[in-house]
Prior knowledge:
Blueprint: H1 7-17, H2 20-26, H3 34-45, E1 63-65, E2 68-70, E3 74-76, H4 89-100, E4 105-106, H5 114-119, E5 126-129, H6 135-147, E6 152-156, H7 166-171, H8 181-187, H9 191-198, H10 218-228, H11 235-244, E7 248-254, H12 257-265, E8 270-273, H13 287-298, E9 303-306, H14 313-321, E10 326-329, H15 331-362, H16 380-383
Parallel strand pairs: 3-10, 4-5, 5-6, 6-7, 7-8, 8-9, 9-10
Antiparallel strand pairs: 1-2
Helix pairs in contact: 1-15, 4-15, 12-13, 14-15
Amino acid sequence: MGVVTCIExxxxxxxxxxxxxxxxYVDAGSWTExxxxxxxxxxxxxxxxxxxxxxxxxxxxxxxMLGEAVSMPVALAPIGLSGMLxxxxxxxxxxxxxxxxxxxxxxxxxICSIEDVASHTGKPFWFQLYMMRDREFMVRxxxxxxxxxxxxxxxxxxxxxxxxxxxDLKNGLSAPPRPTLANWLNLMTRPAWCCRMLGTRxxxxxxxxxxxxxxxxxxxxxxxxxxxxxPTLGWHDVAWLRQRWQGKLVLKGIMDxxxxxxxxxxxxxxxxxxxxxGRQLDGAPSTISVLERIVDAVGHQLExxxxxxxxxxxxxxxxxxxxxxxxxxxxAFLYGLAADGREGVLQSLTIIRQELDTTMxxxxxxxxxxLSRAVVTQSTEVSLNxxx
Length: 388
């Protein structure tokens, strides 16, 4: 491929450079993938108001997220297994985010550990938490995040049980890949990926192996994972976490106005309007289609972020115009990571920043902090009228 001009170009590069199971892991949703598609389609359906003969010479993209200064209101979302797309992937992505001036969020299910990322970066990052049945492990994990100077804790609340992801099941997704004939044949077509992975010691879940009781290898990890995600997760757990964690606390996975009000009452600092990228409840509405109502309900009480389907600077602008204070990107930066490591993540962020800046200018705007719904000329109610 020649000149890379958009996130789609990075997606095509990623597809050719990493094993099929990891590409499918990134580029797929659950069941029929209807919610995965809706996230993108509903963003695309929104139209922008073009304005002319406005002085747009000096433009400002800088803002804040959770009280932290950012070069643009975009954060890298927590994605498990990122270190299988590129050797030491979470470290590389965190370094790119630090250089670019945006937040990086490390997943509980990362390949590189909290300590790995902290030792290779100079700026505090955010840590995403899954609530496990083993509360002693949870306490240690939270303490490790504190020791690593993580500035925010992001509790994912929409994965008490795993949505059925057909491609992952068919591919036998695992880290590292199981030594099956099909996997070996596919890996033979990705020699550069294999060489990089052979050159790192980080090939399993670094936050868990050697830290959770009885988990020392791939086999024991699989058994531990199968019984650890906690289906009893409730608001009492949020209260326990709020008491234990003194930093910024974020709930990720809010899609309902009622749940948003409960989050505000629980005293969290922010929520992420998210349907897990269409990877959990298939048939749920898109995130952009519920954003306005959640903003209207609780936007004056806490900070509201959004993810889902964001693959351009225009998508970022639309979400901000409808009330989000910040936007998380997942697949967009993962394509860059898979395509070209740290430089690929920087490239994805650069693409989004350039698109955001150009779009803002063509809409006659000069300050990202002053966006309003007037920028969007077609409401989400018209494009897709989803009830909450």
